[in-house]
């Protein structure tokens, strides 16, 4: 498989948690609930407000019959290293659950080290707050500011309250050896950050409980089939 294609596939793989949330919301959807109000204009406005560049990738947009939608924002001016594939700016998934909105955003970018630097992610977090609404621009960033990645860990998850909702954030770090411009060995660091905003903590807990129940049910069914 060509190297550029492998990188593109890995980029799409980073959107899987957002896609899984979309599927979960679809499975849990109540018929009387309205569809989410996310649209391209809202995403464009939030990008401008946060100072991020990028365009919505029309061919990667997905919508369920219930109206839940996933948008992918890419930056054509910044292709992945060694490829022509535009870098992922954000993967955005929106939906409704128990009458409240849920917004999940996937960010992926180069970073300086294995430790999270929230100031370096400020524009992305402002984008999330602006897109969700009912939050101050820097509120999500302030809520996460004192959160650190424990030494030796490459994956961490945090949950923090907001003035008008609840936030769950997951950070995944990865690195690879490379050669710098002078021919010396170096290490490149990359990170994916998943930020999900909920209407309330109770909504978050209800959705997690329902997802766990569905997972347990599926596992129990599969084990029963294997035993028979």
Notable features of this structure?
6 helices, disordered N terminus, 228 residues
| Sheet having the most strands | 8 strands, antiparallel
Could you state the order of secondary-structure elements as H and E? HHHEEEEEHHEEEH
Q: What general outline do the C-alpha atoms trace?
A: globular
Q: List the uncertain runs.
A: 1-36
- Taking the alpha carbons of the first and last residues, their distance comes to 40 Å
Helical stretch count?
A: 6
- Class derived from helix and strand content: alpha+beta
The strand count comes to: 8
Percent of residues in β-strands? 25-35%
Q: Radius of gyration in whole Å, from Cα?
A: 19 Å
| Mean model confidence by pLDDT | 82
- Helix fraction, binned, reads 25-40%
Structure description:
This protein is α+β, with helices and mostly antiparallel strands and 228 residues long. Helix content is 35%, strand content 33%. It has 6 helices and 8 strands; from the N terminus they run H-H-H-E-E-E-E-E-H-H-E-E-E-H. It has helices at residues 3-13, 16-28, 40-50, 122-132, 139-144, 201-227; strands at residues 55-56, 62-63, 69-79, 86-97, 100-111, 155-162, 165-179, 185-198. Strands 1, 2, 3, 4, 5, 6, 7 and 8 form an 8-stranded antiparallel β-sheet that branches. A hairpin with a 2-residue loop joins strand 4 (86-97) and strand 5. Helix 3 runs antiparallel to helix 4. It is globular and about 55 Å long. The termini are far apart. The model is unreliable at 1-36 (pLDDT under 50).
């Amino acid at each position: 498989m060509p190297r550029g294609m492998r990188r593109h596939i890995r980029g799409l793989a980073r959107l899987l948690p957002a896609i899984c949330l979309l599927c979960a919301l679809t499975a849990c959807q109540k018929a009387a609930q309205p569809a989410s109000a996310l649209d391209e204009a809202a995403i464009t406005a939030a990008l401008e407000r946060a100072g991020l560049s990028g365009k919505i990738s029309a061919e990667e947009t997905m919508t369920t019959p219930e109206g839940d939608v996933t948008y992918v924002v890419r930056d054509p001016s910044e292709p992945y290293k060694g490829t022509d594939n535009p870098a992922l700016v954000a993967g955005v998934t929106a939906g409704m659950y128990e009458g409240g909105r849920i917004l999940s955003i996937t960010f992926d970018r180069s970073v300086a080290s294995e430790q999270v630097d929230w100031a370096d992610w400020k524009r992305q977090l402002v984008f999330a707050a602006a897109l969700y609404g009912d939050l101050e621009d820097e509120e999500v960033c302030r809520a996460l500011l004192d959160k650190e990645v424990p030494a030796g860990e490459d994956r961490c998850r945090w949950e923090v309250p907001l003035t008008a909702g609840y936030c769950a954030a997951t950070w995944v770090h990865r690195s690879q050896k490379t050669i710098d411009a002078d021919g010396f060995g170096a290490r490149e660091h990359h990170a994916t950050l998943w930020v999900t905003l909920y209407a309330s903590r109770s909504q978050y807990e209800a959705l997690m409980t329902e997802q766990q129940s569905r997972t347990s049910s599926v596992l129990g069914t599969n084990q029963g089939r294997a035993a028979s």
